[in-house]
Amino acid sequence: MxxxxxxxxxxxxxxxLWAVAAALTGNPRRLPGPWAVGHELFAIAASGELWFHAGMxxxxxxxxxxxxxxLGGALGLAMGRSPRLDRWLDPTLVIxxxxxxxxxxxxxxxxxxxxxxxAILAVALNKIPVVAVILREGTRALRPDxxxxxxxxxxxxxxxLRHVVLPQLAPHLAAAARTGVALxxxxxxxxxxxxxxxxxxxxxxxxxxSFDVAGVLAWSLAFVAVMLAxxxxxxxxxxxxxxxxxxxxx
Length: 250
Hints:
- It is a single chain.
- The protein has helices at residues 4-25, 34-47, 49-81, 83-98, 101-112, 116-140, 144-152, 157-195, 200-209, 213-248.
- It is mainly α and 250 residues long.
- The protein folds into 2 domains: 1-28; 32-248, Orthogonal Bundle (MetI-like fold).
- The protein is globular and about 70 Å long.
- The two termini are 31 Å apart.
C-alpha cells in the first residue's frame, strides 16, 4: 500500500492543475473541468455505451497485441540467432520502424477495405517491428554457456527453447508487452477514428465533429483507466516476475 501513495499524490496534483487551468481558461467548451468530464463519464457508463464501445476497442487491441507478439517475437528470435538473416532483414525492419502509423493504416484500408481484417493488420504491422527489435537484442544477449550446457545434455529444440531460451528472454518479452499495449491501443483509436463504426476511436470521431471536448476527454480517460488497470494488474507483475529470474541468477 505505501507504494500507492506517490501515485495518488501525483494524480491528485494533476487533477488540481487541470481544475486550475479550466478555471483560468473560463471556457468550459474549450477546456472543461474534471467535474464536467466526470459527469460525462458517468453518463456514458450509465447508458451502456461505454461498455460496448470500450469492449470493441479492447477486442481489437487484444487481437493485434497477440499477433504482434507472436510474429514479432518469432522474427526477433530468428534474427538474433542468425546473423546472416539479420543482415538480410535489418534494412526492411528499419524501414517498417520509420513508416508513420497513419500511412500503414490508410494503405491497409485502401488495399484490403474498411473491415476488421484491415484494422487488425494495420495495428499489428505497426507493432511487429518494435517487438522484433526488442527480442532480437534480447536474443543476442543470451548466455552462451547455457547454450553449451543444453548441447552437452542433448536437449531437443523445443526443450531448449522452453527451458533455456525463453526464461532468459522473459524480461525482454515483458518489456515488449508493456510497450506494446501502450502503443497498440493508441493506434487502434486512430484505426477506429478513420474507418470503423464502433469503438472508442469512433466515438471520439463523432464528438470531434461536434467539438465536444468534454465527451472526447471522458471517452479517452475511460479507456486510459482500462489500460492502466491491465498494466497494473497483469503486465507490471509479469515484468517484475520475469526480471526476478535474472536478478536471482548468479
